[in-house]
Amino acid sequence: MYPAPSSTYGGACLPLGSRLLMSLLEELNPEQRAAAECIEGPVLIFAGAGSGKTRALTFRIAHMIENCGIDPQAILAVTFTNKAANEMRERIHGLIGEKRAKGIWAGTFHSICARILRVDGKQVGVVPEYTIFGESDQSAIVKEVRSRLDVRLADSDRCSDRTNNEVLWAISDAKNQLMTVNEYLSTAKGEWEMLVGRVYAGYQQELERNNALDFDDLIMKTVQLLDEHEEVRHKYQERFRYVLVDEYQDINQAQFRLVELIAREHHNLCVVGDDDQSIYGWRGADVGIILDFQKHFPKASIVKLEQNYRSTAKIIEAANAIIQQNSNRAEKALWTANPPG
After folding, report:
1. How confident is the model at residue 327 (pLDDT cuts 50, 70, 90)?
2. Residue of 78, 122, 236, 297 with fewest CB within 10 Å of its CB?
3. What is the rounded CA–CA span in Å between residue 141 and residue 34?
4. How many other CB atoms are there within 10 angstroms of residue 178's CB atom?
């Protein structure tokens, strides 16, 4: 059992004796500080380009530990790259020291899921000593399975021209939507999807034979684990009472499901992102997830970081004029105190 925070009241933290960090919070602009101090319940931070979102996020974590008495072990911080995770750790260490921050889980979706599966994955058929197959291993399996199936498809669908990488991308897309082999085959339409389904089946058999997972499996298997095993889900819900997700505009359905399962019990989910910077739809990112945050979490607080520190006023004006042509976006407008340029 992990200790609950002992110094929160109505979402506000009571100082526990650290005046240093409180003075540091005064260095933030009003919106950044609001983001740093909004601790309890679901929070969506819309962070425009160059608005200091990493600064606000790291100050928020430091504030949670130093001023709110929240155990670092109760904090899960999820990023999309190892570089971002390392930068987050370094900045937090710079604010409160490495010793005080010890126990935070900060990492990518894949690294966090890998840790969970090493401990509890056996309950969904994942052995602790599993290996992770990278792109070259994956491509080799698809090539071998496709050759073994001796697939011949109608020229009208031109499936014979589809590369093995295209097949692998389709399998990855299915996993990002949490579709198992059977679910994919049951809805497959046309020769192309039938090809993908048949290779998907053989591909998974080869992974299992080698006690291996691909990167999409790391998330898919962890979702399965938390969804199907209440005691394991409860364990991580109690461990991670506070969940933070960076670059939330790039999240896919499998990642959303993972976050929702962990944060479901305590609802202390803070996400940071900008729908205007969503550019990864081709790899499964669903910008609708950030836009629907208030539907998923009706009591959510919204904070907007709109002051840009990076660009000139003319660049910001031009960017706003272009971005506002998109009707499917959250209402916000960047501004800057920088010279016109």
Report:
1. confident
2. 122
3. 50
4. 19
pLDDT tens digits along 118-152: 999 999 999 999 999 999 999 999 999 998 886 55
Count the neighbouring beta carbons within 10 Å of the beta carbon of residue 211: 13
Question: CB under 8 Å to 151, separation ≥6 — which residues?
Answer: 159, 195, 198, 199
Beta carbons of 98 and 71 less than 8 angstroms apart? no
Of the two residues 163 and 248, the one the predictor is more confident about is: 248
Cβ count within 10 A of residue 120: 19
DSSP 65-117: HHTT---GGGEEEEESSHHHHHHHHHHHHHHH-HHHHTT-EEEEHHHHHHHHH
Residue 172: pLDDT above 90?
yes
Which of 211, 1, 224, 271 lies closest to 116 in space, CA to CA? 224
| DSSP letters for 258-292 | HHHHHHTTT--EEEEE-GGG---GGGT--THHHHT
Q: Which fold has domain 8-119+217-323?
A: Rossmann fold (3.40.50)
Amino acid, res. 199: V
**Domain spans in the chain, listed from the N-terminal domain onward:** 8-119+217-323, 134-209
Which residue type sits at 289? Answer: I
The DSSP bridge partners found for residue 270 are: 43, 244
Average per-residue pLDDT for the chain: 89
Question: Rounded to an integer, what distance in angstroms lies between the CA atom of residue 326 and that of residue 123?
Answer: 45
Instruction: Compute the distance between CA of residue 70 and CA of residue 241 in angstroms, rounded to an integer.
Output: 9
Burial pattern 46-83, b for ≥16 Cβ within 10 A else e, equals: bbbbbbbbbbbbbbbbbbbbbbbbbbbebbbbbbbeee
* 3-state secondary structure at position 234: helix
The reported pLDDT for the residue numbered 5 is 40
- Please identify, in words, the CATH class of the domain defined by 134-209: mainly alpha
What per-residue confidence (pLDDT) applies to 150? 66
